[in-house]
Design goal:
The complex is a heterodimer of chains A (310) and B (353).
Chain A (H helix, E strand, L loop, with lengths): L3 H27 L7 H19 L2 H25 L4 H19 L25 H5 L4 H19 L1 H11 L1 H6 L4 H27 L11 H11 L4 H23 L6 H24 L22
Chain B lengths: L1 E6 L5 H25 L4 H13 L2 H26 L7 H18 L5 H30 L3 H21 L33 H18 L1 H11 L1 H6 L4 H28 L10 H11 L4 H25 L5 H21 E6 L3
Antiparallel strand pairs in B: 1-2
Helix pairs in contact in B: 1-2, 1-13, 2-3, 2-12, 3-7, 3-10, 3-11, 3-12, 4-5, 4-6, 4-10, 4-11, 5-6, 5-10, 7-8, 11-12, 11-13
The chains are: A mainly alpha (310), B mainly alpha (353).
């Protein structure tokens, strides 16, 4: 058990970027907009978070910069898909391509530099709980913030008026429109907010987890987050489960690498991707056999136009 | 004065092409502005790109060399997109094809060129087809999201390739470089006109014609187009959706696999790490810009070839990352996507009543 504790602690840390990205995408998809540009937005978040932390010396300003960058990218996505009704899949891919390229170009002078980054903080008393204390309560502020964000988002979606409006827009924009909710406004808002959260996930990697910037450093985590949204059935708690599952696999394979196993490194590095496939397969089969309700927002990916009235 | 947005029922083909060209141009302007804000001279960037792509006959042939796999993979992607199945993993399928071709060369070397090349092509098509077909099967059987599966299979293919070139297949004489032994001469696709352009060009042209005919003139092509427009209507019409998905994905992967084989056999003559420069994404861009039209995709691929060659030149000449041409690609897609609004809708000024 003692040996497992550090692995589990790393699992939480490496699951955190995925968690933020998954939560962000859940918000966006709940409004009926599919943003597949997560990989690009995370990279931009990782870059801008790192650059701002380095130049200001303050990791919090880094996170703020990342959130702002993500929000801007979300605005682009919202403009193209909500206002112009562009194909959401292709627009997301464009975002991925654009984000990888832009972060690579702008980040070229930041390669090889490190920052002190976000410091850890042991929560008094809670961190003394055996096992759980070291795994969950000896982390950094971003991890704790994500612990709060999960139940908050759950509550927001299920129990509040704006959350209900958001779900209405994603499930039945026509009905929402008839109720006087501005579909476009809600979609804009949550696409922007969601992309901001996604970028925070990316920034966590460069500001808190690695404390450096490297081209393409998210290595597919954006896409894994897209998978986790489906696995989570758009439920924030299940998103946390999925993210930490990914983190666990990642931490375990890193541990094996460090221990000098005879399994070749490339094969070990495959495991998070294989796990993502298995997890997605599992939930899809369960959905097909009606063991779980794969309640995707009914209008996900479909543009909405207010009909002409004379 | 007010304005009114109304749907165009049918935009003429020339208009689609014209708006696309116009918005590609706008994207170049926008990236120029962006480069300028980054302290990079856009004039210099564009002149380096143009010079590296058209500077000499050799440069021009290199542009075609780069455009070749993009064009082939875009045909693969197009087939899926026509029926609204999103195969984003052509990259991985091309890698799987390259791996399979290299495996055949390694374990069953033959002296006869025709036998060697055709067995490599067969292995590559099967491997690529298997790579994509798996995602198609999962989609058809359990409705597993194909975008994510094909993408994850990309990453898995990259690692698998690394495993072989760093491990069991590494050439002992390569001084530690992650690459296999050079292929036997019979496993090389002959090159044309004394350039690096190889016989893969013929394969591409044949495939383009076949795709044109299959998509526009056959019953099966009609069926997958119907599936793309309205899956429910297709189901009522008695089209087997599940098997169409698997077949289309398999064929798409097979074409991508062939593209991978052409790259290793026609160009590198061995398998080496990092062999593909994001052809998968580029091909998606091409498929979309050419409005899923195989013939048009040849021209758009050529444009992407220019950008790829330019990207290498920028890397060497101006120290810019290869990925920075991706900015241009991303912007082109954004602008063209936004521009589609203008051939789907028209904005009319009218007097307010």
């Amino acid at each position: 058990m003692e040996m497992l504790v550090p692995i589990l602690a790393v699992a939480v840390r490496s699951g955190t970027p995925i968690l933020y990205a998954t939560l962000g995408e859940i918000l966006t998809e709940k409004s009926g907009v599919m943003n597949l540009g997560l990989e690009g937005i995370m990279l931009m978040g990782a870059f801008s978070g790192f650059a701002a932390s380095l130049s200001t010396g303050n990791p919090w300003l880094g996170l703020l910069a990342a959130f702002g960058t993500g929000a801007c990218l979300g605005l682009i996505h919202a403009f193209l898909t909500v206002s112009l009704g562009s194909n959401q899949v292709v627009c997301g891919l464009a975002m991925t391509v654009f984000g990888s390229g832009t972060s690579a170009l702008m980040g070229r002078s930041y390669i090889g530099r490190t920052i002190p980054g976000m410091a850890g903080y042991e929560i008094p008393f809670l961190s003394e709980i055996p096992v759980a204390g070291r795994v969950f309560f000896s982390q950094d502020a971003m991890v704790y913030a994500s612990f709060c964000l999960v139940p908050l988002m759950f509550f927001f979606l299920r129990r509040t008026r704006p959350g209900l409006n958001l779900r209405a827009v994603g499930d039945s924009p026509k009905a929402a429109d008839a109720l006087g909710i501005s579909v476009a406004r809600v979609r804009y808002m949550y696409t922007i907010l969601g992309a901001g959260l996604v970028a925070l996930g990316g920034a966590y990697m460069s500001v808190a987890y690695n404390k450096f910037w490297a081209e393409g450093m998210t290595a597919g985590r954006g896409w894994i987050a897209v998978a986790m949204v489906i696995f989570a059935i758009w439920n924030p708690f299940q998103a946390a489960l999925g993210a930490y599952l990914f983190g666990g696999v990642e931490a375990f394979q890193l541990r094996l690498q460090a221990a000098g196993t005879s399994i070749p490194t490339p094969l070990l590095m495959m495991t998070p991707y294989i796990m993502t496939i298995l997890v997605l397969l599992f939930i899809s089969i369960a959905g097909k056999q009606r063991k779980v309700l794969l309640a995707a927002p009914a209008a996900l990916g479909i543009p909405f136009y207010r009909e002409e009235r004379d | 004065m007010g304005f009114k947005i109304e749907k165009r029922l049918d935009a003429p083909a020339w208009m689609k092409v014209a708006t696309t060209v116009f918005f590609i141009f706008l994207a170049f302007v926008a990236s120029g502005v962006f480069l300028y804000t980054q302290g990079v001279s856009p004039v210099q960037v564009y002149s380096v790109i143009l010079k590296s792509a058209f500077g000499s006959t050799y440069d021009f042939s290199e542009t075609i060399v780069k455009a070749l796999p993009v064009a082939m993979v875009s045909l693969a992607v197009m087939l899926c997109f026509t029926m609204q199945i999103w195969n984003i993993g052509a990259e991985g399928q091309a890698l799987a094809g390259a791996l399979a071709a290299a495996a055949v060369v390694r374990y069953f070397p033959m002296d006869n060129r025709v036998a060697m090349l055709s067995s490599m092509a067969l292995a590559a098509a099967l491997a690529g087809g298997f790579w994509a077909g798996t995602a198609g099967f999962l989609k058809a059987r359990w409705n597993v999201n194909e975008i994510i599966i094909t993408l994850m299979l990309n990453y898995i293919a990259i690692r698998l390739m690394e495993f072989f070139v760093y491990g069991p297949w590494r050439d002992p004489a390569s001084l530690g470089f992650p690459m296999t032994r050079p292929f036997v001469p019979s496993a090389r696709l002959p090159s044309l006109w004394g350039t690096r352009i190889h016989m893969g060009l013929y394969a591409l042209l044949i495939l383009t014609v076949v795709m044109e005919i299959v998509l526009r003139k056959t019953r099966w092509g009609y069926e997958i187009r119907v599936l793309g427009h309205n899956a429910r209507a297709a189901r009522y019409a008695g089209i087997n959706v599940a098997s169409s998905i698997v077949v289309v994905m398999f064929l798409s992967g097979a074409i991508a696999g062939l593209a991978g084989m052409c790259e290793v056999s026609g160009l590198q003559g061995r398998l080496q790490a990092g062999f593909s420069a994001q052809y998968g994404y580029t091909a998606i861009t091409v498929a979309w810009l050419s409005h899923l039209n195989p013939t048009l995709s040849l021209f758009v691929s050529f444009l992407m070839g220019v950008l790829l060659v330019g990207g290498y030149a920028l890397q060497i000449g101006m120290g810019l990352s290869l990925a920075s041409t991706l900015i241009l690609q991303g912007l082109i897609l954004f602008f063209v996507l936004g521009g589609e609004f203008f051939h789907n809708y028209r904005i009319r000024l009218e007097k307010r009543r």
